[in-house]
Design a protein that fits this description.
This protein has 625 residues and is mainly beta. Among the domains are: 109 residues, Beta Barrel (OB fold (Dihydrolipoamide Acetyltransferase, E2P)), CATH 2.40.50; 44 residues; 70 residues, no CATH class. 8% of the residues lie in helices and 37% in strands. The strands form 11 sheets. The protein has a 16-stranded mixed β-sheet that branches. A hairpin with a 7-residue loop joins strand 6 and strand 7. The longest helix has 16 residues. The protein is elongated. The relative contact order is 0.07.
Length: 625
């Protein structure tokens, strides 16, 4: 098979300390790893042939302890004479001159994409009302220093968002909240639906397009090698054609590594050779060294063998359906135990140790530590005013999801103490009713031994921790419009006790006025002792009915201190009426009970002295008659 050779070139661009340096046609070795978040993309870069003075200056880019600098390194790669493609961009995390490789020392760089953006400390972000998902994530990407690639598969809006942390952390949190994968690749950031491709066109990989060796089947899909191709990108697609059974088809890239060398020094001869790549077969392919002019191959010169390849991990993908492929899709409620099950692992969860630990820790916290749940009261003890606060059963209102996003219905949690506002033996009794919403707070330890009315320390009932079975209920959230309410209005200073059914309202106003009103029914005041009204004036705008004796010790006066007058009505009473002051009445007075006595004289049967027949007037009534 005929072979062709082209010289491979790597260009390194470093921006930092207020200036930019470009390194071309230097011997370079670059390893780029793109595992997918939470572990960020990283690169290890060696540049050979630099002067001691240059390496001394570049070593100043090394971050100081506990402080990160915004020093950026970019790696471009391609055939010499052609525009190179961006292979990697990230923040320099380490920079030092490596003399362990003498006689060919190099300048070594470690880099991490988003390292600087992860440590920026801006104010929290709050959005009141709706905002589009792409719009908000684009804002965070710009704050973090990335270009935002809008994904047309990401649609919709969110309401009332609050996020804190660095712009990078906000992007991660927001993506997780909305159920998307955040992809930060070189200079760009984008959101992508889980298990879907970032790019639509699959890159062919076969014996004629760069496939190296044979694909290897893995637990989650395949792993294969190919000659470096800038079109092979993380979360893109490849179409493999190989004789390996099960390897053919379209695959979604979930992890990508690039191993690139150019002009690597010849350690045995002390010269520099140019790395070139041959066309490949389906069995094996390796880079071949050529002379520094790049005109002829020189496999016998003893030059160090270079690499110009990518290592790909991928999962099977259906271009027709637009997502990864499973043998059988689980169906909820079938009861068939042979159905495939799927957990919450993401495509990148097992790519690195960091990703695996992050996934395991998150799962441990999620499965063992409960914090709070919104619940609905199923039933509750109704101990009225004569008993202590009781217990209630409640069902969480937010359902769980399985790996296929099918809803898993919640069940009722039994016998949880509910809140009753109380201090000592003083309480406001408003026990929860079925249908009320409450917050279930999970206790740190099994608290079943804590009972009403006792403050003694107890042993935990079991070894469970942060369990919903040890929930306490704080009721009163998201309730319906009340029909009985007590309002304490800080804006007006008013206090109001009202009931909708009977139209009763008791209000205490900031001015000191107290209003008691009812538009239906009566108001009854009962006491075994006296009712004392100690006020300057009592105004009655309606009829005043007195069914017992009306006794007053003072004067009955009218407006302005004048005589008491009863206008436009009749005083109607069924008891006794004893007046030692004075009454002026311009209406009427009716008495159906005891006699009316005024100044010792009885109206019903008093007598007069000096009575004579004729048209004269009588004398005043006799005393005591």
């Amino acid at each position: 098979m005929s072979q062709s050779f082209n010289i491979k070139a790597i260009k390194i661009v470093i921006t930092g300390e207020g200036k930019q340096e470009t390194f071309e046609e230097f011997a370079c070795a670059v390893t780029v790893t793109k595992p997918g978040l939470p572990e960020k993309n990283s690169a290890n870069i060696d540049i050979y042939g630099l002067s001691l003075n240059t390496m001394t200056q570049l070593a100043k880019l090394n971050p100081t302890p506990l402080v990160s600098k915004h020093n950026v390194i970019r790696v471009y790669a391609g055939d010499k004479g052609s525009p190179p493609a961006l292979v990697y961009q990230g923040d320099i995390t380490h920079a030092w001159a490596d003399f362990s490789k003498a006689p060919n020392p190099c300048m070594h760089f470690d880099a991490n994409t988003g390292n600087y953006a992860q440590q920026i400390a801006p104010s929290p972000t709050t959005e009141k009302g709706p905002i589009e998902v792409n719009q908000l994530c684009a804002r965070f990407a710009r704050e973090a220093g990335f270009n935002y690639e809008e994904n047309k598969k990401v649609t919709g809006s969110v309401k009332n968002v609050h996020l804190s942390g660095s712009p990078f952390a906000k992007m991660q949190s927001f993506a997780k909240q909305q159920g998307y994968d955040l992809i930060v690749d070189d200079e760009s950031a984008t959101l992508c639906p889980p298990e879907e491709a970032r790019f639509g066109d699959a890159v062919p990989l076969d014996t004629n397009s760069g496939l190296i060796e044979y694909p290897k089947l893995t637990e989650n899909g395949i792993q294969c090698k190919c000659l470096f191709n800038p079109n092979v990108r993380f979360r893109g697609l490849i179409k493999v054609n190989s004789i390996v059974p099960g390897a053919n088809g379209t695959w979604l890239i979930t992890k990508l590594e690039h191993h690139l060398t150019s002009y690597i020094p010849d350690a045995s001869a002390g010269t520099t050779s140019t790395t070139t790549a041959s066309s490949s077969t389906n069995t094996s392919s390796s880079s071949t060294s050529a002379s520094s002019s790049g005109s002829t191959a020189n496999s016998s010169s003893g030059a160090v063998t270079g690499r110009w390849e990518s290592v790909i991990d991928a999962v099977l993908y259906s271009e027709e359906k637009g997502h990864t492929v499973y043998p059988i899709k689980s169906k909820q409620g079938t009861g068939d135990q042979s159905q495939v099950v799927k957990g919450t692992q993401r495509l990148t969860s097992a790519n690195t140790l960091t990703n695996a630990i992050s996934f395991l820790v998150e799962q441990m916290i999620r499965n063992t530590v409960n914090t709070a749940e919104v619940v609905s009261i199923d039933e509750a003890d109704q101990n009225s005013t004569g008993g202590p606060a009781g217990y209630a059963d409640a069902t969480p209102l937010v359902c769980q999801l399985n790996g296929f996003n099918n809803t898993l219905p919640q069940v009722s949690i039994a016998h949880m103490p509910f809140l009753r506002p109380q201090a000592g033996k003083a309480a406001i009794v408003m026990d929860p009713q079925p249908g009320d919403k409450a917050i279930l707070v999970a206790m740190k330890r099994d608290s079943t031994g804590v009972v009403s009315g006792k403050g003694n320390q107890v042993q935990p009932g079991s070894f469970r921790t942060y369990d919903l079975a040890d929930g306490y209920l704080i009721n009163g959230f998201l309730g319906e419009a009340p029909e009985i309410w007590l309002e304490l209005n800080p804006a007006t200073g008013n206090i109001s006790l009202s009931t909708k059914a009977a139209n009763i309202d008791i209000s205490c106003r900031e001015s000191g006025d107290i209003d008691i009103s009812t538009k239906a029914g009566n108001i009854a005041i009962a006491a075994t002792g006296q009712v004392t009204i100690d006020v300057p004036d009592v105004i009655c705008t309606g009829n005043l009915w007195v069914k017992g004796d009306l006794v007053y010790d003072g004067e009955a006066t009218g407006p302005g201190g004048g005589p008491a007058r009863f206008r436009n009505g009749i005083i109607n009473y069924a008891g006794g009426f004893d007046n030692t002051g004075g009454i002026t009445n311009s209406g009427g007075m009716q008495n159906t009970g005891s006699p009316v006595t005024s100044n010792g004289k009885t109206l019903d049967y008093h007598t007069h002295s000096g009575v004579m027949p004729g048209g004269g007037n009588t004398s005043q009534p006799n005393e005591g008659t």
